[in-house]
Design brief:
CATH superfamily of the largest domain in chain A: Medium-chain alcohol dehydrogenases, catalytic domain
CATH topology of the largest domain in chain A: Quinone Oxidoreductase, Chain A, domain 1
CATH architecture of the largest domain in chain A: Alpha-Beta Complex
Number of domains of chain A: 2
Order of helices and strands of chain A: EEEHEEEEHEHEHEHEHEEHEHEHE
Distance between the termini of chain A: 4 Å
CATH class of the largest domain in chain A: Alpha Beta
Number of strands of chain A: 16
Oligomer: homodimer
Shape of chain A: globular
Strand content of chain A: 25-35%
Radius of gyration of chain A: 20 Å
Chain lengths: ~350, ~350
């Protein structure tokens, strides 16, 4: 019988790179669903870079987590009890942000989507059919990717990157991975990337980009900012398009000024376009993208790597692995809480 | 009788900010037009920021001037002798780049446009109906300026800026000048700018932009890069568009790295678009813009300030004044060479 709901609460706003001690594992009773609510047990908990932005006192897209609150996060889970006509016990649902780092959550129908494992297995609903998939799809669309473009993707083996790389291949592009290690680069090649750079072993990143894109970069899907961004921007082709999708490499100095070389003159001369991207702006078109992503997955044209940690206790550690770029594939946590009586 | 053609030749590539000694005034015989050529005497010589980019060994849009060559530049001039059926002695013509800093030049019909003083006086053909006009027009078009936008223009009193500000007003925008001094800001207000900043007297530029654009900047027409760019980018409204048109504030450190704060995260969060601009990309549409500019000038909806130096001897000094932001209005040089026999 389940009795305890373990919850990771924010203990302090991190200074620089977060540490495990920035969260505390607490226990609460398993909640009881009220009218219109359902009790959901997490099957897979999400681990994602956006979470860094939610634990800063800085202005951001969304309200942050206050110290003492349950840490924000999404999950795929099973309905254990339902007071909603739309869902029954045994149904699988997914929520992008409203689960929290905990075993059980009360959710309403408006907070979830139904998981259909005929389209893709449960754990795929946090990336392929979650926000990562639509991020990759619309991030490339915003950059007006065209067949024949040289497309560079940073954090190429990550949850968005591995999808973007494969979508760009489907779109007839030459696709270049930038990732941390040779192990990850090998994974990228398995997924169909044409070439790539393991940045930790390159003494001169800008020269490495020039080596793999001698005619310049047409599209840059930037998940990192920082030195990787700098290296690519020095190699933009005429009329290049850059999608600024994430800034994970700035995580260590979140809230501090990012001082370094600026390339406005290069951007001007290339008539390049550098554009911020937020997937929520494309929400009215998610269904279009998800139908295509599910079909490509079903055809085997998209394959995915996962890095799944075991047990809710590992949640902060899994998040720190992600920030440290140590994960191989989409990082998730498989829950170990009891499933029922 | 004209016998001597004075010519400013590049003496050395400038290190940092150019100095007068980087050019030497030499004399040559007045050339004699061959078949298909005409001899043109400069009436007004152009002085423009792009010239800085042509005297650097760096890669740039266009071929640079070699040491020893006549300095590049445009002019409005009078045809003194013509071996072309299209033009006769007494006609006025304009060339954007092919005159050079000299009294007389040989030109072909392909290098010039005919000046029609019924549309605007001769000196207006180097800005209003030259490249500055189409730069202002298409730079705002690229930024998808819309009525009601808050539009910030740097180098607002300059040759492109004073045109962009008035076009943005015609387009129903709230228009904000950023310029160096209070004297220039007063000129901008005369031209219809709604508000502005004299950056030399502001202790905190980002705060000053926030003061004049409390709801953020929708369009930034950037002629300067540098600290002004930094201040505006920290105040971008959601979905802001930035046109990178010029980098005159980097002139002192041309070819060196531009080190400073980067704002990728702010650009991402605002979903802003930062885009390089080169007017030549719009060449097929110049006539569309010039017809409108001439009509607005004719209606008095566009007025222009000029800062006209006297005599070819003042050409390098006039260019240095421009780089030092000392000119009030479009900088030109009125030629003092003899007009005829």
């Amino acid at each position: 019988m389940r009795e305890v709901n373990r919850q990771w609460r924010l203990a302090a706003y991190p200074k620089g790179l977060p540490r495990e001690s920035d969260w505390t594992l607490t226990e609460a009773p398993v909640p009881v669903p009220g009218a219109g609510q359902m009790l959901v047990r997490a099957s897979y908990l999400d681990v994602a870079p956006y979470m860094r932005g939610r634990i800063s006192p800085q202005t951001n897209y969304a309200a942050g987590v206050a110290v003492g609150e349950v840490m924000v996060g999404g999950a795929v889970g099973e309905v254990l009890a339902s007071n909603c006509p739309q869902f029954d016990a045994g149904d699988l649902v997914v929520t992008e942000f409203d689960f929290g780092w905990q075993d059980y959550a009360l959710l309403t129908p408006a907070q979830v989507r139904r998981v259909d494992t005929a389209l893709a297995p449960a754990h795929c609903w946090l990336d392929l059919l979650g926000l990562n998939g639509v991020t990759a799809y619309f991030g490339l669309a915003q950059a007006e990717m065209r067949p024949g473009d040289s497309v560079v993707i940073s954090a190429a083996a990550g949850s968005v990157g591995q999808l973007a790389g494969q979508i760009a291949k489907i779109g007839g592009c030459r696709v270049i991975a930038i990732t941390s290690s040779e192990a990850k680069l090998a994974r990228c090649r398995e997924l169909g990337y044409d070439d790539g750079i393991a940045y930790r072993i390159e003494p001169d990143l800008a020269a490495a980009v020039k080596r793999v894109c001698p005619r310049g970069v047409d599209v840059f899907f930037d998940n990192t900012a920082g030195p990787i961004h700098d290296a690519v921007v020095q190699n933009l082709a005429l009329n290049a398009r850059v999608t600024l999708c994430g800034t994970v490499s700035l995580a260590a100095r979140f809230g501090e000024a990012d001082i370094g070389p600026r390339f406005l003159r290069q951007i001007m001369i290339a008539r390049a376009r550098v554009q911020g991207f937020l997937v929520f702006d494309y929400a009215p078109r998610y269904d279009e993208a998800r139908a295509r992503l599910a079909a490509w997955y079903g055809d085997g044209r998209i394959r995915l790597h996962y890095d799944i940690a075991d047990g809710l206790a590992s949640q902060p550690r899994a998040f720190l692995r992600l920030l440290g770029s140590e994960n191989l594939g989409k990082q998730l946590v498989r829950n170990d809480a009891p499933a029922g009586a």
